[in-house]
Amino acid sequence: MGPKFDGSVLIKLLLLQCLAVLSAAQDFDFFYFVQQWPGSYCDTKRSCCYPTTGKPPSDFGIHGLWPNYRDGSYPSNCDPDNSYDQSKISDLISRMQEDWATLSCPSNSGSTFWSHEWEKHGTCSESVLDQHGYFKAALDLKSKLDLLQILQSAGINPDGGFYSLSRVKSAIRNGIGYAPGIECNVDEEGNSQLYQIYVCVDTSGSKLIECPVFPNGKCASSIEFPSF
């Protein structure tokens, strides 16, 4: 007579499998979708280099779509075996050159920047978005969120003028329905300037939500919006 089969072992195995699937589906709580103002990236001591495709548009560009935890920490470099493969996103490259341009030196095509974003951040959302889905989600969010138009409609223009931080935040909140996180950097003269805008997105990568936590933005109460 063969060994008696213990059904409870099977149930335990199934439960463990379910838990593994659940934990994989919840390896982060939300995304930060981060756009940066190229004029502020370039107006620093380190300066910038235009990509090999030429000067990017005078508009906010994507920095990244970053999985985050509610406590403010974040996962990174989650799957070294799933490296960036540009052939998987060949249909998105022209949009990325426009909306996700690199400004790092020396001048380059952008693939190093995109590779970094996928490998550091994108791999941590691979339970939800594959490589193509990840880049497309960020591009689609950019199409939905015209931050420059929102700010200009509120009389906040990239003309080298100074604007109150509270006015910038209010303009974006009124425009998108959610409070943004604002990050500043410093120009060569030491002025605080509008550098990056953070909005929060649900774990599908498509729906805006209220931010559970904001990054430390290091902004003065009055910030410059430089031209580009």
List the helices and strands and how they pair.
Layout (H helix, E strand, L loop, with lengths): L6 H19 L4 E7 L1 H5 L18 E8 L24 H7 L11 H10 L10 H14 L2 H7 L7 E4 H12 L4 E6 L5 E10 L6 E2 L12 E4 L3
Antiparallel strand pairs: 1-2, 1-5, 3-7, 4-5, 5-6
Mean of residue pLDDT? 92
* Radius of gyration, CA atoms, in whole angstroms: 21 Å
| Secondary structure: number of strands | 7
Helix and strand composition category: alpha+beta
* Number of helical segments with 4 or more residues: 7
Low-confidence stretches: 18-25
H-E order = HEHEHHHHEHEEEE
From the N-terminal CA to the C-terminal CA, the straight-line distance is 82 Å
Q: Please indicate the percent range of residues in DSSP E strands (runs of 2 or more).
A: 15-25%
Percent in helix = 25-40%
- Silhouette: globular
Sketch the major β-sheet.
Answer: 5 strands, antiparallel
Quick structural gist:
Helix content is 32%, strand content 18%. The protein is of the alpha+beta class and 228 residues long. The strands form two sheets. Strands 1, 2, 4, 5 and 6 form a five-stranded antiparallel beta sheet that branches.
Walk me through this protein's architecture.
The chain is α+β, with helices and mostly antiparallel strands. It contains 7 helices and 7 strands, in the order αβαβααααβαββββ. The strands form 2 sheets. Strands 1, 2, 4, 5 and 6 form a 5-stranded antiparallel sheet that branches. A two-stranded antiparallel ribbon has the order 3-7. InterPro entries: Ribonuclease_T2_eukaryotic, RNase_T2-like, RNase_T2-like_sf, RNase_T2_His_AS_1, RNase_T2_His_AS_2. One of its GO terms (biological process) is RNA catabolic process. This is Extracellular ribonuclease LE. Belongs to the RNase T2 family.
